[in-house]
Amino acid sequence: MSVSNSASARESLRGKRATVMGLGLQGGGVETVRYLAAAGARVTVTDLRPAEKLGESLRAIAGLDVQCVLGEHRVADFTEAQLVVANPAVAPDNEFLRAARAARVHVTSEMELFLAACPAQLVLITGTQGKSSTTNATAQLLAACGKRVHVGGNIGRALINELDTMRAGDIAVVEISSYQLEALSPGFGPLERVRAVCCVNVLADHLERHGTLEAYEGAKRRMLDLAGPQALAVLSADDPRVGRWSFARGRELRFSTRPGVTTGLNVADGSFRLDTLVLGALADLRLPGDFQRANMLAALGLAHALGARPHELAAAISSVRGLEHRLEDLGRRAGRRVWDNGVSTTPDSTIAALDSLARPLTLVCGGQAKRLELDELAHCARRWNVRVVSFGASGPQLAAAFRAADVPTHVVASVADAVQAAFELTPAGEDVLFSPACASFDAFRNFRDRALAFRAALPPRED
Question: Which pTM was predicted?
Fold first, then answer.
């Protein structure tokens, strides 16, 4: 699709009655409202929260010709619309969305609107752990190799209002979540512009939304339906669930960091490789954490598929910088090395961080518990002689699991209290790891706000 096709997609919205469900506290629906309003749609935005709780988002759409229905949802706004765009946080079986479908109203999402109109080549990346890091690395590698790149999606940046700046030769690297995949219309895809898709893993998470791990995996697998006929699917060979997937419509490339693997994307003789073709040196990887090897390996495969040459990739690896709150080294503080893995909202992600550091330390974890098992995390903490400070709503539950595995655990109320306790319990010269393993919604808007609260409570940096 060319830029003119993108303009055509926008033109098709002119005059349509469009309801945006969920403006969001963090402006989750703001970009959608702006896009629809700019396209000339007759927009109604509806949110169950009252105006006083949506101040930042409302200010962002001030001056636009839209109707706001706040503090309630009205059935007529859904059944009498021609288009309903729902925030991904809204479950597909929501009663108002069911009413819209029963009235034969098209229910869609910001991601679907973007994908349908995007003129650029698309790379779509999903997974439970590592999808943001893989998206970030892929985009940086491609940019370093001279490609014109746009990066966004679930990584925290909507791209829908950048469509007019994109060209057919550009590459849009898009992180896409299970919620966003689940929200796509039945039958949407395949899309010729989707040149590559990637799934880094499928681990236990979001069961409160999807119900079962099988349903969660099904949502992730939906990404394969978006891939065009000439697309490449880069899939983990090490993850047992993704390892069972097959991609019959296009090309399939597996990646593995296991010793002895020499086919597909692999790690051998100190190098990242595609079969025997060297894509770069392991020693040039600057991202902390063993798990980043798999993320970089997948990113190299994706960038190579989009035209980056091996010698360009090899030169670019050392320039790739990580995202905040992904096992980020915050330096020495009061004689202790501090690591911020605040992105962690699952036990699995905290296990990966502990295994990467592989030494005795103090783990700070807590928040809002998910319906996930804690036994493996507790045994991992015991294996590395970890002491634990747990905080928040899940503090007592975490403490019970750790203590059952003979892991010393101290329970506190808040993140600030946890920092104080961690520095009191940690001998000088050892490490403090912030890796919550739980959702943030007991006390914070998101994982970033919680991580920033952790940082704010730390002593000054010494190095």
Answer: 0.93
